[in-house]
Write a structure and sequence with these properties.
This protein is α+β, with helices and mostly antiparallel strands. The protein is built from three helices and six strands, in the order βαββαβββα. A six-stranded mixed sheet has the order 1-2-3-4-5-6, sandwiched between helices. It is globular. The relative contact order is 0.15.
Length: about 120
C-alpha cells in the first residue's frame, strides 16, 4: 500500500510585506497563516494531517482556522497533545480540540491504523 508523504515549505520572509504597507489597501487584518509540526499522509486521495503540540494553547487562531478548514473539506486531522509520545491527549478531527481524549502512544498508533484501513477501502 503506497503512502505519499507531502513536503511543505514556508514562503520566504518578506514575500508579501508590500501588501501590509500599501496605503491604497486597507485590510481589516493581516497575519501569516503557518501550521508547524505537521506530518501529512496521503492514501487513495485521502489526507491525514498529524499535528503535534505540547499544549493546546500553543495552537494560535490562524493554525486552528487552517486545521478546521481541512476537516470541513473532508480531510482528517489528528492533534496529538502532550510533552512527549508517552503522555498524549489526542483530538481526532478538528474542531474538537476542546474535547481531547487521553491516549498513550499505542492508542495513537491504533487510531492511525484505523485511518489507514478506512483510507484503503476507497
Amino acid at each position: 500500500m503506497p503512502v505519499e508523504m507531502i513536503e511543505t515549505h514556508a514562503e520566504p520572509s518578506g514575500w508579501f510585506d508590500w501588501l501590509q504597507q500599501d496605503t491604497s489597501l486597507v485590510p481589516e487584518g493581516a497575519e501569516d497563516l503557518v501550521v508547524t509540526a505537521v506530518l501529512v499522509l496521503q492514501l487513495n486521495g485521502r489526507l491525514l494531517y498529524l499535528k503535534r503540540t505540547s499544549d493546546l494553547a500553543e495552537i494560535n487562531l490562524g493554525e486552528r482556522r487552517i486545521l478546521d478548514t481541512l476537516t470541513r473539506q473532508g480531510d482528517t486531522v489528528f492533534v496529538a497533545v502532550g510533552p512527549d509520545a508517552g503522555h498524549l491527549r489526542l483530538s481526532y478531527r478538528m474542531p474538537d480540540l476542546e474535547n481531547a481524549i487521553a491516549f498513550d502512544a499505542d492508542g495513537l498508533r491504533a487510531l492511525i491504523r484505523q485511518w489507514f484501513v478506512w483510507a484503503s477501502t476507497a
